Amino acid sequence: MTFFIPYVSILSAQEKITLIDANASCVTASCHSNMGKKKYVHAAGVDARFCVKCHEIVKDGEHTFRKISSNTRTLCIQCHGEGIKAPAELKDPPPRIVFEDKNMQFHPLFIAGECTACHDAHESNFYKHLKVQYPDEFYALYTEKTYALCININCHKGFEKALTAPRTLTDTMFRNGNVNLHYSHVSIPKGRTCRTCHQICYPQHVSKNPKLIRESFPFGKRALTLTFEKTETGGDCSTTCHRTSKYDRYEPVFNLIKTVPPPGNDATDEELKLSRERDLQKQEDKEGTKEDNKQ
Ligand code: HEC
Ligand code: HEC
Ligand code: HEC
Ligand code: HEC
User: Which of the listed residues 53, 120, 195, 200 should we mutate to test ligand 3's pocket, taking the one with most ligand atoms within 8 A of CB?
Assistant: First the structure.
């Protein structure tokens, strides 16, 4: 009898169809009247004039809409694409972002066009109308809650160790020997938010760096520079924040900057050697999988 169930549900869905006047507003005292009340509002997402930019009516006069794909790239590009003429009725100009650039690295969800995995198209109580908590200030001590957007069961699962373990040889590649540099930047009272170093959505041409490391970051009204060079075994970072410093996972570098060493002991030479072998193995496994996928 299973075939019967979808048939019933189609029928009941059809019964619910409301007739509408295509010229009437979507936001009135009785329709969608709750929109636009949250803390961070996407002007275009709650403005009755723009609903149909994203919601395509299936049949004139009926309140039924084409399903929106989880890839919303073509919808967002209408206003946020570079060099695209945004609708004249907009009060504020939309920030323009880079959707494509061969020389740049993008977050995988961004490439997939899954904008609404992170942003609510209409409004939310979180910064940049993100769907989940992400800090809006420059400094934020790491807690599981503050970064719920990045660290949750679907994304960067288990990454909290990379942020909270003072020392590690396995949880992150951003380490000097076993000193965890994610911890020392993020898990301190004046913790630097991820955006200090990583760029997620690109307002301008800002980064050609691996790991989405940006070339400058906003600090108040200023843009401070950040020059990052990734090496085989670590990196080299020059910024306005501190003297040029280097890190190396297997041969820890001594840097001339004042920092409090994290609790725990430095790794022994033997442990460092083992961690190098482990990382190499991981790298090979990863490349192996890529090859397999190609075949
Ligand atoms: C920028 C694109 C965009 C605009 C503009 C937009 N929406 Fe949406 N809307 C979406 C997407 C995408 C979804 C699917 C839910 C998701 O992915 O978060 C959605 C879902 C909805 C839903 C289903 C319930 C929900 O919130 O998930 C309603 C109702 C809705 N929109 C009403 C409106 C109304 C009314 C307007 C105009 C005031 C509007 N939308 C403008 C993109 C948009
Ligand atoms: C009809 C034009 C239009 C469309 C389509 C559109 N936007 Fe926007 N967007 C704007 C405008 C105008 C602003 C600037 C005003 C504001 O912040 O709401 C903006 C601002 C934003 C901001 C920055 C908000 C802030 O607080 O600075 C984000 C994030 C954003 N849009 C995401 C999206 C996403 C994701 C989509 C696709 C699902 C999308 N937009 C589709 C017009 C649009
Ligand atoms: C992995 C999560 C994620 C995805 C996927 C994502 N964004 Fe964002 N987006 C962010 C975050 C986080 C910010 C805020 C960056 C910051 O200020 O640190 C942001 C900022 C923005 C802004 C504001 C830029 C500015 O100058 O204020 C726009 C516009 C935007 N995103 C549009 C998009 C569009 C369009 C897509 C899909 C092609 C998309 N985003 C996909 C997380 C995401
Ligand atoms: C002080 C700069 C800085 C801050 C702040 C920062 N990162 Fe990173 N992150 C890096 C660098 C540099 C790398 C590249 C390490 C390598 O491969 O040598 C990296 C790598 C990563 C990786 C790749 C896996 C790994 O650990 O090697 C992820 C995921 C990541 N960061 C997420 C985050 C998140 C989430 C936050 C915010 C909670 C954050 N980062 C804050 C500098 C930073």
Answer: 200
